[in-house]
Structure formats: structure tokens, C-alpha cells
Design brief:
Layout (H helix, E strand, L loop, with lengths): L27 H20 L27 H7 L7 E8 L2 E8 L5 E4 L2 H4 L4 E6 L14 E3 L2 E4 L6 E6 L2 E6 L5 H7 L3 E5 L1 E4 L2 E2 L7 E2 L2 E6 L2 E7 L3 E2 H10 L2 E7 L6 E4 L5 E4 L11 E6 L2
Antiparallel strand pairs: 1-2, 2-14, 3-19, 4-17, 4-19, 5-6, 5-9, 7-8, 7-9, 10-11, 10-16, 12-15, 13-14, 13-16, 17-18
């Protein structure tokens, strides 16, 4: 055996490959270079961090959080009127969007329609009435479909708003075609059309752009009431006030100087509008009789 082939007890010979080499140390200058390149980026991120430590959802001074839902402006009052036993009209003054409004809530009475001026002479028999449908300028006939105690006096769809009174149920709504017209004729009811103002809680734009005292027949929280502006308003602003008042559906009633009457819960009667005209035999009223 040659000297090269001899293996002592303290030696190990690796067969078939080179002996393992020791690992080289990681160059220190590379680590320094990486740290030097990363430092500016770290500093930039730190400087650009959000400075506002305000908690999420916490309101600021000038940007207030969304206010909580406001209570219905008339619900409590309307609920109180349900407990009153008098046959009269409860009234409530309220301001919505800087528009002063007066709300008339007839108590313990169901309305009907009347045509002509007889109601004016017998106003003490009523707790509330206002002019209902309009009159045409050319032939002085009633504008739009109109049913008086089951008798159609006028037909047509000049205005999409309607009021139907059938079997002591009052319905205010907006529709081009309503089966309630036929039901009114078949069941001895009442029906008339007017400009729509509010349809299922949504404002309906009107073609009338002037300003005037406005009146509306409204369904508010399942109560049929009349709302009147105390100042001259555009139809848009008046309708928006009705929406913000919590109105579900509303149609226009003849406003401005149109005649109206109210008997309040104290027994005081009040006239609205001008009462010296007898020029329109087809003038119509929605009226709540006193029992």
C-alpha cells in the first residue's frame, strides 16, 4: 500500500467528490450599501404618514356627522287629534324650510264634493271647505274628470292628481288612469282631478311657475288634511315643504284668493280668500259637514 493509499484511524477520506469548502463571509460593505439605500425611503414614509389621529367616525368641528333621523313633524299632533270628539277643525302652524304653513285637520267628519255657491250661504253647516277643481277659462266648465255623487259632470285627464271619496274612504293619489273614477260613478261616490304635488313621498314638478298662496289636499301619516302656505310661494317650494312635512301624497287645491272656510275647535269660524264673486256656476268645493 502506498503512502497515499494509507488511512489512519483518525482520518476520513471522501470518495467520489471534492472535499467541502468553507463558506465565505457575507461582505460587510454590501450590508452597509443596502442600509444606505433603504434609509431615505424609510424617512420619506415616516414624514408622509397621516398626521390626523382622529378616530374613525369621530365628527369634526366643521364637518359634522350625519344627523340622526328627525321625528315626524306632525305625527304626535295628528295622533292627538284622533282622540278629540268634537266635530270641528284642529289647526296647527308650523314652519318648514322657512315657509310658514297652516295645517287644517278636520275631526270626526267625512268630506264630499259640492258644486255651486249654496255652500257659501250655509257655511255654518260645515267645519271646513275649500275650492277643489279648477274651472276652464274658455267655457267655464270643470277642468278634468269630476264625479258628483255618482254622476260624472266632466271627463278628461288635464291633471294627473286625483281625490276619490267612496264609501267614506278618501284617497289622494297620482295616476293617469285610476279605476276610482269608475268606482265613484258606480258607488255613488265623488272624484276630481288637480295638479299633483307629492307622489309617494316624492316631489312632482309643476308647470306653474308664479308665486301665490298655495293650498294642498294631503295624506300625512294616513290623515287627510289641508295645508296652506301663509306666504306666497312657488309650486316647487311649496311641494318641497310638503315632502319635508312628511306628506305621502298631495294634490293642489285652488289657492290664491279662492274661497275657504274653517270652524275651529273653539267654535270660531274663519273665512279665507274672497267671498264676493258669483261668476262661476261650476265652482266646486271639497267640504266636511258638521254633524
Amino acid at each position: 500500500m502506498t503512502k497515499e493509499e494509507y488511512i489512519s484511524d483518525s482520518e476520513i477520506r471522501v470518495i467520489g467528490g471534492a472535499a467541502p469548502q468553507p463558506k465565505k463571509a457575507f461582505p460587510w460593505w454590501v450590508a452597509v450599501l443596502i442600509m444606505g439605500l433603504a434609509a431615505p425611503a424609510i424617512i420619506l414614509l415616516w414624514l408622509s404618514r397621516p398626521m390626523n389621529t382622529q378616530a374613525p367616525g369621530e365628527p369634526g368641528l366643521f364637518e359634522q356627522a350625519t344627523p340622526a333621523e328627525q321625528p315626524h313633524p306632525l305625527r304626535a299632533w295628528l295622533s292627538e287629534t284622533d282622540t278629540l270628539t268634537a266635530c270641528a277643525t284642529a289647526t296647527r302652524d308650523i314652519t318648514i324650510n322657512d315657509i310658514p304653513l297652516r295645517v287644517y285637520a278636520p275631526l270626526n267628519s267625512t268630506p264630499h264634493l259640492e258644486v255651486g255657491y249654496d255652500i257659501v250661504s250655509h257655511r255654518d253647516d260645515y267645519i271646513l271647505f275649500f275650492q277643489a277643481a279648477d274651472v276652464r277659462a274658455d267655457n267655464k266648465k270643470i277642468v278634468g274628470a269630476f264625479v258628483l255623487k255618482g254622476e260624472p259632470l266632466s271627463r278628461g285627464l288635464s291633471k294627473r292628481g286625483y281625490c276619490a271619496i267612496i264609501n267614506d274612504i278618501v284617497t289622494v293619489g297620482v295616476a293617469e288612469n285610476s279605476p276610482l273614477f269608475e268606482q265613484a260613478t258606480e258607488q255613488n261616490g265623488y272624484f276630481f282631478r288637480q295638479y299633483p304635488l307629492v307622489d309617494n313621498g316624492t316631489l312632482v314638478e309643476s308647470e306653474l311657475k308664479n308665486k301665490s298662496i298655495r293650498r294642498a289636499l294631503c295624506d300625512i301619516d294616513r290623515h287627510i288634511v289641508v295645508v296652506e302656505s301663509q306666504t306666497t310661494e312657488s309650486m316647487h317650494d311649496f311641494a318641497q315643504a310638503l315632502v319635508d312635512l312628511g306628506t305621502t301624497n298631495a294634490i293642489y287645491l285652488v289657492g290664491s284668493s279662492a274661497m275657504g272656510w274653517c270652524l275651529d275647535t273653539d267654535g270660531n269660524g274663519s273665512k279665507m280668500g274672497l267671498w264676493d264673486s258669483r261668476a262661476y256656476p261650476n265652482i266646486s268645493f271639497i267640504a266636511w259637514p258638521k254633524h
